[in-house]
């Protein structure tokens, strides 16, 4: 039977998953702790990657190589980029792109990785549909399918967030999704990123992030919980 890899970047994002796991065994690799067990009777490996693209990339490759996961789900919070998104709303990735990949000096558009065909990594259609269904079941939750932008930067200004919307068509911005997506693409493993908005990546982002991360993580987890019950 298949094993599903589940990643969050921070404690708030994975602790609810760990609390819902059965028979969890732990294994440490490259400084990350992996929890292998079951969740709603599915075989899962849950882990906290830490923040940023390198942490998320290494964690994803370990999930694939050492644990043989055949799907990867990412749960957590993000800054809202699309102007219609509010704190607490959900973004389900259609695709993920690294907004801080910048080779514009050589004539490439922002986000484009030179010398390779793909820079926007497509999420798995079935996982996206399942996430949308799970989101619908939560009731009064605004859910948008869209492009997840990732970079090793916490975005906290109107200028930056407006730019990411206008020039890179982002739905939300975070710090891991596109590196998970790229590693999944390189290995032929399907993935989806589910993010609940903790802030609007503007001048209030630091205060909002501190206030809303727990509640938003809870909401992202609720979607994963429902997805895992139906996989
Ligand atoms: N994660 C949550 N909010 C974020 C922001 N404003 N920028 C980057 N990552 C985030």
From TrEMBL:
Q: Which EC class does it fall in?
A: hydrolase
* Keyword line: Amino-acid biosynthesis, Glycosidase, Hydrolase, Methionine biosynthesis
**Which EC number(s) are documented for this chain?**
3.2.2.9
A matching Pfam family: PNP_UDP_1
Superkingdom of origin organism = Bacteria
Q: Does the keyword Aminoacyl-tRNA synthetase apply?
A: no
GO MF terms listed in the record are: adenosylhomocysteine nucleosidase activity
Q: Which residues form a coiled coil?
A: none
Nucleoside phosphorylase domain mapped to chain residues: 3-228
Pathway, per Swiss-Prot/TrEMBL? Amino-acid biosynthesis; L-methionine biosynthesis via salvage pathway; S-methyl-5-thio-alpha-D-ribose 1-phosphate from S-methyl-5'-thioadenosine (hydrolase route): step 1/2
Note the PANTHER family from the entry: 5'-METHYLTHIOADENOSINE/S-ADENOSYLHOMOCYSTEINE NUCLEOSIDASE, 5'-METHYLTHIOADENOSINE_S-ADENOSYLHOMOCYSTEINE NUCLEOSIDASE
What name does UniProt use for this protein? adenosylhomocysteine nucleosidase
**Source species, please?**
Paenibacillus chibensis
